[in-house]
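Exercise: predict the fold of this chain.
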Amino acid sequence: MIDFTASPEGLPIGPAMNSDDGEGFPRPFYVNSDPAIWSYNHVLPAYRFGKVNDTPSCTALPPVDNNPYRGLTGIVGPTGAPRPLSTAKLQLVFHDVYGNKTVSAEPMAPINVPYGYTDEIIAVSAWPGTAFEYSFVKGATAGVFLDSTLAFQVAPYIPGGGVSFDQAAELATSHAERYKQVFYQVQQKDMQFEPGTNLGAVNQEPDAIKAPMLSFVSKAKVFLDTAAQIRTYGK
């Protein structure tokens, strides 16, 4: 496999009962509804074996191995060269009720599965504790400049002014978890930041502000992790 290392054999799974009669597990929309067909449904943690990992390794930041987008190369491969979307190869075999591997008269060939994600991108407007402002500035000779600022509001996470230690810590813990999701998303090479207005196109390179945005997310995550540990004396 190009995009993933070989994994050990996973635990066997059995067919899932349909839930049309209120029993069993909810049946995914794509499963055949014919009762004569046994339906198997299982989530495979392929990211654990991905070769490509865009997340930087740092003890103060979310763990590299927990990156849910690990193995996802998008339009670039391990060497940085253009390539199709990642592919995971699955090998399926049958086992008997005791777990023994059976010999099939017609073994199933390996399946090449396109590997991507359907997660909703967390927009900057949904980043907790952020404040955004902008203004249009007249150019020295011609044109108009878009001057924008993204700031992190620390006050809600600091005890005092009606905010207790526990309230501040609980809010920081919740928002730190959100920033962990943001952190993993923004590390992806296919994730870009581009300002825009309804007054016209902004003349700026697509990757021009990605580094500052990555820095913002990392610093916010480190601050919130620290603030989440604040407790009253003796707790």
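Check your answer against the key: The chain has two domains: 1-118, 124-227.
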